[in-house]
Amino acid sequence: MASATKLLLQERVPLARTAWKLADLAVLSLLLALLARRAATLLAAGGAGSAAPACTWCWLAALVCEAWFTVVWLLNVNGKWSPVRIDELPAVDMFVTTADPKLEPPAVTVDTVLSLLALDYPAGKLACYVSDDGCSPLTFFALREAAEFAKLWVPFCMKHRVSVRAPFVYFSSGGPAGRGSAAGDEFQRDWTAMKSEYEKLASRIENADEESLVRRGDGDFAEFVGADRRDHPTIIKVLRGTGREGDGDGVPSLVYISREKSPRHHHHFKAGAMNVLTRVSAVLTNAPVMLNVDCDMFANNPQVALHAMCLLLGFDDEVHSGFAQAPQKFHGALKDDPFGNQMEVIYQKLGFGIAGLQGMFYGGTSCFHRRKVIYGVPPPESATDVQQPTRMRGSPSYKELQKMFGGSKELIESARSIMSGEMFAAAPAADLSSRIDVAKEVSSCSYEAATSWGQEVGWVYGSMTEDILTGQRIHAAGWRSALLNTDPPAFLGGAPTGGPASLTQYKRWATGLLEIIFSRNNPILQCISRRLELRQCLAYLVIDVWPLRAPFELCYALLGPYCLLANRSFLPKVSEPGFIIPVALFLTYNLYNLAEYMECRLSARAWWNNHRMQRIVSSSAWLLAFLTVVLKTLGLSETVFEVTRKEQGQGAAPDDDGADPGRFTFDSSPVFVPPTALTILTAVALAVGAWRAVAGAAPAPAPGSSRAAAGWCSASGRS
């Protein structure tokens, strides 16, 4: 995937050309009849009652020529018998999720949406759906304004072949010189005019006030009056598009969705939002391919959809591409990764290694899905496997589909079309606005009751890391996944640029991973009862057990201070032969880890920052996640989904006051209590050990003692 010139986009589509085939056969039949007649005449020549041709050699010559004509026609028929339409691409429904307008500013979401609307892909084949779980009139206002700006932005990108189509990033990267197909006067004028329009858009979004928008109480904002983010009916607005052909101006469809919320129903966090997006898009556009991105993950490569089709359509067997996952990369990330959250080495080493097994994990964003795979359809080779859910074997009946997908006839019919394997199904021709009532029906709180949504169908419930859980279910069904690693990177997002935000993100991930471990969705059980391969199961366990390291690492970190305070030792003495083993292990492991960072072209400082943050995360975010899940398992509490703050311009973090983006700033969160206490304890232990050695309050450690080594290990482990 490194070079776009080496990619072949292909899909073989059987075409209905019965009339032409009949015509081909008719001509062939007549040619054969002519040959038979001529041969029969020549064979009968000279026989009793048969007259010889007037010119026998003329007939022989004609026979040879006509035989050649027949062979040529047969070759032509063979070549034209199975044509392929290579210019048709499957439709793609693109999902963008946002949950809080304060932590995820509407301007960030707008930038992502505009980058998706401007992809190098037929506009009539694209539709963008934005899920707003915050039910924010500000987000809706920003998207409505962006829909108008898209009429200018998309043609500008296509005309000048703009490489980065997120306008904030594009206009922040310098002047117009060399930014398009040519830096002539026309481009200079277009660039200046477009930048001015974007600045006006950004100003309108920044200056918008939620109260003043709702206070109007009319038009597009009437449904937001009295709406609470935790208790409100469904709001769906078609901002762009009338069916798959869009509005005829080359801009894809754009739909705003704020699903119904009620305190009486569990909304299942992001997984619930994704399932609503899946159902709403099914009754509106029903694309066989779906892309989902977080609100801050803009399309950095405008040809990413074409690259994805190479993977989804290019294999001889579709089982190899249940979904195509792009590595998570970041725009404007802090130098040397001071908070250890850019995960460059994890993706290049562990991620690419796992891609060689049953396939890359689903990362929750930057992923192209086959809709039928999300619906739980198994690969063709295992469709009748006894390990598959009963309703997924063969072709489900209407009643079975109703139990799976709910009571909406429109949704059931769209699901039937997708599950049949049709990649180029005709899209609804009606105005999307005419289907709003159906879309609201399938996005209600009660729609999923007594259905398979969240279990066998859609994004899986039961964990805050719905991405890992859903990808695991797909792999357990027998599908494989493909790695979408393009140059330039397919998508770029924003990594948290502050200590508290980073630890909040790690805590949420760790909580979700532990929820998987302590549930029936444990990868070990999936390996035994389903089609999850053994090595893929072990790969999932590598990620799932991250937070389980917390109690063990905490215990090991406490051994050093304890031994210094109690005048004891847990390591061999320096004079003992066994001392070389922990020393060699310590040096070898760290040199091995450092070599990985060097191979990934990262600095030694980046290695040190990640090593340091791993110790901090283990004793803080992972530890609290472990305790949270234990309390949940005992029925004493419930987990809470915490949204990570997103920033449009990566740099100064909100908790840094802009002074030093790489500075680790503490706040009042309890997540800092364990590592702070451990650091203080280690410092006290080192001071006590040093005082004993200097003042002689206790027998000084002998040259062969390992207490000094214990103090060194303890200090290095906390740094």
Automatic annotation (TrEMBL):
<feature type="transmembrane region" description="Helical">
    <location>
        <begin position="671"/>
        <end position="691"/>
    </location>
</feature>
<feature type="transmembrane region" description="Helical">
    <location>
        <begin position="579"/>
        <end position="595"/>
    </location>
</feature>
<dbReference type="GO" id="GO:0012505">
    <property type="term" value="C:endomembrane system"/>
</dbReference>
<feature type="active site">
    <location>
        <position position="133"/>
    </location>
</feature>
<feature type="binding site">
    <location>
        <position position="104"/>
    </location>
    <ligand>
        <name>UDP-alpha-D-glucose</name>
    </ligand>
</feature>
<dbReference type="GO" id="GO:0016760">
    <property type="term" value="F:cellulose synthase (UDP-forming) activity"/>
</dbReference>
<keyword id="KW-0472">Membrane</keyword>
<feature type="binding site">
    <location>
        <position position="270"/>
    </location>
    <ligand>
        <name>Mn(2+)</name>
    </ligand>
</feature>
<keyword id="KW-0328">Glycosyltransferase</keyword>
<dbReference type="GO" id="GO:0030244">
    <property type="term" value="P:cellulose biosynthetic process"/>
</dbReference>
<feature type="compositionally biased region" description="Low complexity">
    <location>
        <begin position="697"/>
        <end position="712"/>
    </location>
</feature>
<dbReference type="GO" id="GO:0071669">
    <property type="term" value="P:plant-type cell wall organization or biogenesis"/>
</dbReference>
<feature type="active site">
    <location>
        <position position="467"/>
    </location>
</feature>
<keyword id="KW-0961">Cell wall biogenesis/degradation</keyword>
<dbReference type="GO" id="GO:0071555">
    <property type="term" value="P:cell wall organization"/>
</dbReference>
<dbReference type="GO" id="GO:0016020">
    <property type="term" value="C:membrane"/>
</dbReference>
<feature type="binding site">
    <location>
        <position position="133"/>
    </location>
    <ligand>
        <name>UDP-alpha-D-glucose</name>
    </ligand>
</feature>
<keyword id="KW-0808">Transferase</keyword>
<dbReference type="InterPro" id="IPR005150">
    <property type="entry name" value="Cellulose_synth"/>
</dbReference>
<keyword id="KW-0812">Transmembrane</keyword>
<dbReference type="Pfam" id="PF03552">
    <property type="entry name" value="Cellulose_synt"/>
</dbReference>
<feature type="region of interest" description="Disordered">
    <location>
        <begin position="697"/>
        <end position="719"/>
    </location>
</feature>
<feature type="transmembrane region" description="Helical">
    <location>
        <begin position="616"/>
        <end position="635"/>
    </location>
</feature>
<keyword id="KW-1133">Transmembrane helix</keyword>
<dbReference type="InterPro" id="IPR029044">
    <property type="entry name" value="Nucleotide-diphossugar_trans"/>
</dbReference>
<feature type="binding site">
    <location>
        <position position="294"/>
    </location>
    <ligand>
        <name>Mn(2+)</name>
    </ligand>
</feature>
<protein>
    <submittedName>
        <fullName>Cellulose synthase-like protein H1</fullName>
    </submittedName>
</protein>
